[in-house]
Write a structure and sequence with these properties.
35% of the residues lie in helices and 24% in strands. It has 98 residues and is of the alpha+beta class. 14% of the residues are buried. Strand 1 (8-15) and strand 2 form a beta hairpin. It is globular. The protein has one domain.
Length: 98
């Protein structure tokens, strides 16, 4: 079966810049119309940590891994070093589309 070139979901892991500096994620191509502008503005106001495209055939396990990563980041102390770009790529690599 040939994959369609658009069989992917754009995502971003970002950190809010406000008081609590929480880590969040967004799956851009899944946003509902009524929340699209608000969610995109929230992500744009934050600091991008990692972004890319997920293979739609692997989206559910990818979502679970993204959620685990964000939970892990939110559980870290401010003093702890954040995950490196290589670590994000290692953990999400099997789900990413180049």
């Amino acid at each position: 079966m040939t994959k369609l070139p658009d069989a992917k979901t754009m995502f971003e892991i970002y950190r809010e810049r406000d008081y609590n500096r929480s880590f969040r994620y967004i799956f851009y191509t899944e946003l509902e119309e009524h929340a699209r502008e608000t969610e995109i503005a929230r992500a744009a106001a934050g600091d991008t940590i990692f972004h890319g495209y997920l293979d739609d055939e692997l989206k559910e396990p990818a979502r679970q891994e993204v959620e685990r990563i964000v939970d892990e980041l939110n559980g870290m102390d401010e003093d702890e070093p954040m995950l490196s770009r290589d670590e994000f790529a290692r953990r999400l690599g099997r789900y990413l589309v180049p």
